[in-house]
Amino acid sequence: MKHFDIKDSKGTDLLEYFARIREKFSPEELTRHNVAGAILITTTSIVMKRNYLGLTQEELAAKCGYKVRTISAIENNEMMPTFDRVIRVLYELGYEIEIKERDQN
């Protein structure tokens, strides 16, 4: 069941369109795309929350004990940070991590 509709300017249902594309992916490709999507969501959340809190990259870096370049690289997907760095940045922004089993579909 769809909760909302997303259509392009031509009226194409984008959720259905992307679902059809996903059917063509191998399991390995699908995993790679899902992981990339999770990384993008995480980095976007970091930028949005930092801005919402009115923090500069410099201020967030100082709170985390990191260099400004590290925060910039994380936010711009220029590096693959270690898990502990991601957790530290998210913690300083007021997030917590919940680990749960994903749907296997």
What would you say this structure looks like, in words?
This protein is an all-alpha fold and 105 residues long. The chain contains five helices and no strands. The chain has helices spanning 14-23, 27-52, 57-64, 68-75, 83-92. It is elongated, with a radius of gyration of 17 Å. The two termini are 15 Å apart. The model has no long low-confidence stretch (mean pLDDT 87).
Morphology call: elongated
Question: What are the secondary-structure elements, in order, as H or E?
Answer: HHHHH
Provide a count of the helices. Answer: 5
Structural class: mainly alpha
Low-confidence stretches: none
Give me the Rg, rounded. Answer: 17 Å
Quote the beta fraction: under 5%
Number of E-type strands: 0
Average residue-wise pLDDT: 87
Helical percent range?
55-70%
Q: Main beta sheet: strand number and arrangement?
A: none
State the end-to-end CA separation. 15 Å
